[in-house]
Design brief:
Distance between the termini: 17 Å
Order of helices and strands: HHHHH
Largest sheet: none
Structural class: mainly alpha
Helix content: over 70%
Strand content: under 5%
Number of domains: 1
Amino acid sequence: MFYPSLFNLRIKELHTVRLLFAVYIFGFAYGARNHIVDILADGWLGYDFVPLPINLYWTILTFFDPLAIFLLLSFPFPGIILSVLIMASDIAINTGVTVYFYYQTGIFSLGRLPLQIAFGVFVFITTPIAWKRIREIVKARTAKYP
C-alpha cells in the first residue's frame, strides 16, 4: 500500500505529491459533504428536478468522492484515474444541467460550478505531475529492493 510512503516525510520526492493530494482530498471531501447534506435534506435520490440518470449520478458521488480519497491514499494510480474521471464527468454534467436550465427558464445560475471547474482544472493540470513523481518513487524503490 502507498499509505506508509505518503506519510514517510523523509521521502522528500513526495512533498509535491503530498501537497497535491491534500488539495484533491479537500476537494473530494467538500464534494462528499455537499452530497451528504443534500441527502439529509432531501432524501435518497433527492435531486428530483433532474432526470433519473443525473439524479442517480449525483447521489452516487456521495460514495465515489470518499472512494477517490481512499484510493489516493492507498493506491495512488487508480486514485488519480478516478479523480480525473469524477471531475470530467461532474463538470460535463453540471455544465449541461446549467445550460439546459438557462434555456428552459431564462435564469442563469452558476451556483458552485465555477469553484468545481477551478478544482477540476487543478486536478487535470496536476495529475501528470503526481503520476510521474509516484512512478519515479516506485521505480526507485523496486530497483533498490529487487
